[in-house]
Write a structure and sequence with these properties.
The protein has 184 residues and is mostly helical. 76% of the residues lie in helices and 0% in strands. The termini are far apart.
């Protein structure tokens, strides 16, 4: 009996506490309406400096070669005069066109790779659908399969190379100071 009364009392206390608790929506509304000072400056990605990607450790000869290349690139950049606004606009348009054409190339290569993979899957399904195929000429199937897989691997490598070229073009546009609308 005492346990039942004790559990009822605990339940009533918990009910009273939960009834008096504020809902999360009420707290959020009160926080929203409270006057807080606004931020002095809104920071965007364009305002933040970019962090260079870390390069893997290389041999000392490679490091010397890279520093020489970096020096020659810096010399080339220093030798270039500041471009007038008209040249910068035309350069931005040219860069936009190059990036768009590279994106189209990636799209085309992706479609070709997808088609090659689907055709190979169909060939495999047709080969294994007829049990006699493996008995008739297994060497021909292995040769054809190897040739198709090599073509797929070549298409995948070309697609990866095109994606890397696009990334390099976008990074070059970003470093040149073009707005993000040019290289995105």
């Amino acid at each position: 009996m005492k346990r039942a009364l004790l559990s009822i009392a605990v339940a009533l206390v918990l009910l009273a506490i939960s009834a008096s608790a504020q809902s999360l929506g009420d707290v959020a509304r009160r926080q929203k309406t409270s006057n807080r000072p606004k931020a002095a400056k809104v920071w965007t990605n364009d305002d933040m400096p970019s962090v260079p990607q870390s390069e893997p450790a290389t041999a000392p000869a490679d490091a010397d070669k890279k520093t020489d290349e970096a020096k020659s690139d810096a010399d080339k950049d220093a030798a270039k005069p500041a471009a007038p606004a008209g040249d910068k606009d035309s350069a931005a348009k040219a860069m936009t066109a190059q990036i768009a054409s590279q994106k189209e190339e990636i799209s085309r290569l992706g479609r070709e790779l997808d088609i090659a993979q689907r055709e190979f899957k169909l060939q495999v399904a047709n080969y294994y659908a007829d049990a006699g195929n493996s008995l008739r000429d297994p060497k021909a199937w292995q040769d054809q399969s190897k040739k198709t897989q090599d073509e797929i691997a070549a298409k995948q490598a070309a697609l990866d190379k095109a994606k890397q070229k696009l990334a390099d073009m976008q990074e070059a546009a970003r470093k040149a100071g073009f707005p993000s609308s040019v290289y995105e």
